[in-house]
Amino acid sequence: MALKITVDPDSATAPFEQIRAQIADQVRSGGLPVGYKLPTVRGFAEELGLAANTVAKAYRALESDGVIETRGRHGSFVAAAGDAAAREAASAAAAYAQRVRRLGLDRVAAQTAVDEALRAVYAADA
User: Fold this and answer.
1) pLDDT, tens digit (0-9, with 9 covering 90-100), for 46-81
2) Is the pTM of this model over 0.85?
């Protein structure tokens, strides 16, 4: 089991997003197990031929999404994503519900907005 990432410099997708998406996909698919230690930012950037800030940005996004966790000087590791993802989703849902209520939307309108947003995002993946 090894981290396999390819970055297409001709892609319209930013390199950091290519890295983020590929790592997240490998974690979701089980290709990278919980506890797997990711390469250092500098080492991985060198391996990919990218700036360290590009890899650092991808790692920060993955950490924000609960896919990885950084343990200071010990490095970055694949997190127990199920729990973190569920907590993050619940938090986002609660914030959304509070916001649409303040905006005066009823439950049906709020749910319709969610359904349309999900349809648009998941259709983009197809």
Assistant:
1) 999 999 999 999 999 999 888 899 888 899 999 875
2) no
Output DSSP code: residue 73: G
The angle subtended at Cα 119 by Cα 123 and Cα 68, nearest 5°, is: 75
Burial of 100 (0-12, 13-18, 19+ CB in 10 A): middle
DSSP 67: S
Biggest CA-to-CA distance, the chain: 52
DSSP label of 34? T
Enter the DSSP assignment of 66. Answer: T
Helix (H, G, I), strand (E, B) or coil at 43: helix
